Structures are given as structure tokens and as C-alpha cells.
Amino acid sequence: FTAVHPDEQKFFNTALGLVKSAGRIVREAFEQPASAVETKSSNTDLVTETDRAVERYLIDGLHAAFPDHKFIGEESVSGGAKIEWTDAPTWIIDPIDGTTNFVHRIPLIAICVGLSINKELRGGIVYNPITNELYTAQVGTGAFKNGFPIHASSTQELSKAVIAISLGIHNLRESFGAKWTDLNFENQRKLVQAGFRGNRSFGSAAINMMMVAQGSVDGYIEYGIHAWDVAAAAVIIREAGGTIISPDGSPFNVMGRCVLCTGTPQLSSTISTNFTHVQFQAEA
Ligand code: IPD
Ligand code: CA
Ligand code: CA
Ligand code: CA
């Protein structure tokens, strides 16, 4: 690990402490009956008081420790607005990834905190406070789950691959209207016809990516995701030895609204070839 900022380790450790305590807010809410659920863009795009409380808690804590740092948080970015992303140390935050799971009390949710410096993703924390699984990585350290090293799978063949293909419903529907279903089903049909082993998708971009990072599934692909869904997880995937690119085969851009990650580049390339690609505007 070679820091690009003299205080980088302190940044990461501070965030780690805050994420762990934020876990308590999520756990306590999860144990109660579901309370008020609001919809944002549609019936599939949800937000709760807990999403907002966790984001406020993380931003307040980090801001108090590092007043000159910047923030890109899902519930603070106003819908559709361009994101301002600078060279300053920037925390990219999804307070609850998997809000639909949270609302339905499906225990697959993650608090995600990524750190960029000079627009390079440097550190990632993905924490499921319900199952108490804490994934961490910094550039050059390797990836860890609860302190133990994890590794992505070595599967190269589609016939041996379990892939998380997410429908990404609200993002696709917002951008492609009624056509989004065709796109999704066409892509799923193509992978079935190409003979992949199965689809397991967990309702959270970050959990899907942690499943790739720990080698449980071999790949994950989604169009329409946002920076906060993937920033933290991207560092962990890379440090776990996985590949992360844009589904059309171009380099991954955290602001590019799409992701394809796998254990091996061979598998990425096969999945990419078997997909119909769609174009999203970069969000920063
Ligand atoms: C969503 C989840 C979901 C993915 C969506 C995301 P949220 O995040 O990651 O798995 O399909 O694209 O928006 O809204 O639950 O934080
Ligand atoms: Ca959301
Ligand atoms: Ca999310
Ligand atoms: Ca969220």
C-alpha cells in the first residue's frame, strides 16, 4: 500500500469506525416493523428515513474529522443533477444499498463508502450490518472480509459461470421507457442461449459485487447503476483479483452508469460479446 495522500490511512480508519457504528442504526431499524416508505422516481425506487439518517450520520462524522473533504451521497444528490467530482478527497456514499431488500426485510443490504483522491478510487468499505459481513480494501492491500483475505473466482468458461444479472428496473425504465424490458429479457435470453450455469442476483449492486469478490458468483453485470452503488465495491473487486470493466469492453468509469465484473478477463469478454449494449450519459 502506497498512500497518495499522507493522511490516507487515517481517512480510511475514520470511515471504517463510522461505518461500523452506522451499522447499529440500520440493524435497529431492521428489527422493527417497516415504517414509512417513500417512492422517488417510481414504485421501484424507494427511500426510508433510515437511508437518510445513515447518510447524515456518515457525512456529519466525516465532515467533522475532515472539513475540506467532499461528498457524493445518494440521498444528498438531487435527482438527475450532474455530480461534481473533483481531485479533492471525496467520499462516495450509499447509506443503504438494497433499499428494496431493506423495506422487505431481506437481510441483503450494504452500507457503502468509497474514497477517491485525484479522481482515483483508493479505498472501499462495504458492510452488511445484518449478517455482520465487513468487506474492505485499499489500493495495494488485497481485499478482506472480516479481516480474512478474499479472492475472486478463476472461472473462464460461461458454462461454469453463475452470473448476477440485475434487472436494474428503475434506472433502465427512467432512461428507456417501455423498451427497458426488451433490453433486459434479450440479454438474459442471450446468456441462457450461450449456455451459462445460472443467474443469482441479490438486490444490491454492492452485495452482487462482494459475491464476485469472494468467488461465490463468477460475474455481475448491470446497466443504470450510479457511482455510489459501485465506488467502494470496485476497489474491493480489483484487490480481490477480479476484473471490472464497462459491459461494452471499454475501461470501467465509476461515473459511467454501468458495470461488468468477473473473476477473470476471459469471462468478461464472453459476457460482453453476448450482450446488447445501451448508452447512458456519464453522471460526472
Ligand atoms: C439499487 C440496488 C439494486 C440495483 C439498482 C440500485 P439502492 O440501489 O443496488 O440492486 O439494481 O440499480 O439503484 O437504491 O437500493 O441503493
Ligand atoms: Ca436508491
Ligand atoms: Ca444503491
Ligand atoms: Ca441506496
Model description:
The model has no long low-confidence stretch (mean pLDDT 95). The strands form three sheets. The chain has a seven-stranded mixed sheet with strand order 3-4-5-6-7-8-9, with helices on both faces. A five-stranded mixed sheet has the order 11-10-12-14-13, with helices on both faces. The chain has a two-stranded antiparallel sheet with strand order 1-2. The protein contains eight helices and 14 strands. 35% of the residues lie in helices and 23% in strands. The protein has helices at residues 8-31, 49-65, 99-103, 169-176, 179-193, 205-213, 227-239, 265-273, and strands at 37-39, 46-48, 70-73, 90-97, 110-117, 120-128, 133-138, 142-145, 148-149, 162-165, 198-199, 219-223, 243-245, 258-262. A hairpin with a 2-residue loop joins strand 8 (142-145) and strand 9. Bound molecules: D-MYO-inositol-1-phosphate and calcium ion (3 copies). D-MYO-inositol-1-phosphate (IPD) is lined by residues 74, 94, 97-100, 166, 168, 171, 203-205, 222, 224-225, 229.
